[in-house]
Amino acid sequence: MNSKITILHARPWSMVDEVTKAQREGVSIQYVMTDRLVPNVDAETGELGYTVTKESISVEASKALVEVPGVYDAEFVLRGRAGKNVLVVSTVAFAGGGKK
User: Fold this and answer.
1) Kind and range of the H or E element at 2?
2) Among 23, 40, 57, 85, which residue's beta carbon has the most beta carbons within 10 A?
3) What is the DSSP secondary-structure string of 19-88?
4) CA neighbor of 7 nearest in space, from 58, 59, 52, 60
5) Within a 10 A sphere around the Cβ of 31, how many other Cβ atoms?
6) What is the chain's pLDDT, residue by residue, as a tens digit (100 residues)?
7) Do 93 and 67 meet the contact criterion of CB atoms below 8 Å apart?
């Protein structure tokens, strides 16, 4: 699945896995599922604005982060987490700066 997202924040991380002792690293991103930051109202729930999603992408995928905040074409893949299938960002491609 592909979708436009606005990445608001990105931070590299690195840690040693306590069990395997292997070095793990990635980039934590926070994003919203829109490319247009305009007032948003969910008439059904009464929620206002956008829910911010946080997840990690690979260091390799993070090389495409040209400008943050910025709009990106994101490719999502299905992964198993905690016994459930969830969509996660696998790659991003810069699509332009944030829109007002």
Assistant:
1) strand 2-16
2) 57
3) TT--EEEEEEEEEES-S-----B-TTT--BS---EEEEE-HHHHTT--SSSEEEEEEEEEEEETTEEEEE
4) 52
5) 23
6) 999 999 999 999 999 988 999 999 999 999 999 999 999 999 999 999 999 999 999 999 999 999 999 999 999 999 998 899 999 999 999 997 655 4
7) no
